[in-house]
Amino acid sequence: MSTMRNARIISVGTYVPETVMENSDFERFLDTTDEWIASRTGIRQRHIVSKELPTPASHLGREAALIALKRAGCSPAEIDGIICATFTPDYFFPSTACRIQTELGCTRAFAFDVGAACAGFTYALTIANSLVTAGQYSKVLVIGTEVISKTLDWTDRSTCILFGDGAGAVVVAGSETPGRGIVSSYLKSDGALGDILVLPAWGEKRTMQMKGNEVFKHAVRLMTDASEKVMAAAGLSIDRIDYFIPHQANSRIISAVAEQLHLPAEKVVCNLERFGNTSSASIPLALDEIWAAGGISDGTMALFTALGGGLTVGSVLVCF
Ligand code: ACO
After folding, report:
1. Which of 219, 222, 234, 274 pairs with 314 at a CA distance of 20 to 30 A?
2. Does residue 48 form part of some domain?
């Protein structure tokens, strides 16, 4: 009897730029307060690239990937593929993944970007899972990297306060260990709701525009639904989860989703207080903290769920 091939996350690495922007820094140029931002979003600070000499997304992604490779004990030459989720690429092409490939020296790898906004990491991870379980590729780097500060209208107080820059990467590797790896995943999009969260590629106003209340409402509904669907696909009840690691957009969105899923607060990972919304980097940034604190061991179950512009929603259930 042939053994079923699984795709396991064997390491994580993250990187954020040095510069920290506190909520109080916004008070100098916007009609806002630290208190308003912290109470409405849960965010207290975020890391951003230098305004004068912005670090490109490929550099942040490369640094995160280097850490993930080192922790996996894996050389760049062993990597079969790089899938990079980003909505802030260095160029339309070459892809950010190709730029990272050459900087890392992953000479054997394929490389491409995925555009699913803040749900990008769950989409990239799902693609990596399919490629690895199909048996053609053994080690794939999945990266989420964003330089969101370059896309913001810094006069729009309802949007620019939410985001931060950063990157996260995981190494996904084929494994024959039964029951370990990516257990199930669920992806769904709703293009009809595209206009509530947009970043135009052309035209005069090339900054992020958002109907915050609408995004909030749909995020709670769609993230709850995707989480339930992925658990049902795995035939497991939500009690089996050790950690719920949602996209870090707003602590009130995260609490509302956790409440609807009947998840106790101790299982819900939330670190947006220090990073803000880093889009496709937010799930690996949260995973890294849990892993570094010794929270991940053989058999630990984590549920990743994210929503992004598109709208896109993705949920991935992982058994480490
Ligand atoms: N400081 C002070 N006041 C503010 C600020 C601010 N930074 N921003 C908005 N306000 C004001 C508004 O102008 C409004 O004033 P008004 O009543 O005089 O018109 C008031 O606060 C209330 O505004 P709301 O939009 O109702 O505030 P809300 O509680 O909904 O919070 C927020 C706004 C934080 C944007 C919230 O809607 C939210 O987080 N939505 C989700 C956004 C999001 O997460 N987007 C990204 C997710 S997907 C992805 O990651 C790409």
Report:
1. 274
2. yes
Question: Do 13 and 89 belong together in one domain?
Answer: yes
Amino acid at 146: E
CA of 212 to the centre of ligand 1 (A): 5
Do residues 36 and 131 both lie within one domain?
yes
Q: Find out whether 81 and 131 touch, Cβ atoms under 8 Å.
A: yes
Please tell me the distance between residue 217's alpha carbon and the centre of ligand 1 in angstroms: 12
Residue 210, strand partner residues: 197
CATH number, domain of 81, equals 3.40.47.10
In a domain, 204, yes or no: yes
* For ligand 1, mutation pick of 158, 189, 190, 199 (most atoms within 8 Å of CB): 158
CB 216 less than 6 A from any atom of ligand 1: yes
pTM for this entry: 0.96
Residues acting as catalytic residues: 118, 247, 277
According to the 3-state scheme, what is the secondary structure of 62-87? Answer: HHHHHHHHHHHCCCHHHCCEEEEECC
157 Cα: distance to centroid of ligand 1 (angstroms):
8
Would you say 144 and 279 are in contact if contact means Cβ atoms under 8 Å apart? yes
Does residue 40's CB lie within 6 angstroms of at least one atom of ligand 1?
A: yes
Residue 71 belongs to domain spanning: 6-175
202 and 152 within one domain? no
Chain-centroid distance, C-alpha 204:
29
| Domain contains 1 | no
Q: Distance (Å, rounded) from C-alpha 318 to C-alpha 63?
A: 24
Q: Per-residue pLDDT tens, the chain, 320 aa: give them.
A: 455 789 999 999 999 999 999 999 999 999 999 999 999 999 999 999 998 888 999 999 999 999 999 999 999 999 999 999 999 999 999 999 999 999 999 999 999 999 999 999 999 999 999 999 999 999 999 999 999 999 999 999 999 999 999 999 999 999 999 889 999 999 999 999 999 999 999 998 899 999 999 999 999 999 999 999 999 999 999 999 999 999 999 999 999 999 999 999 999 999 999 999 999 999 999 999 999 999 999 999 999 999 999 999 999 999 99
- Please indicate, yes or no, whether residues 80 and 202 belong to a single structural domain of this protein: no
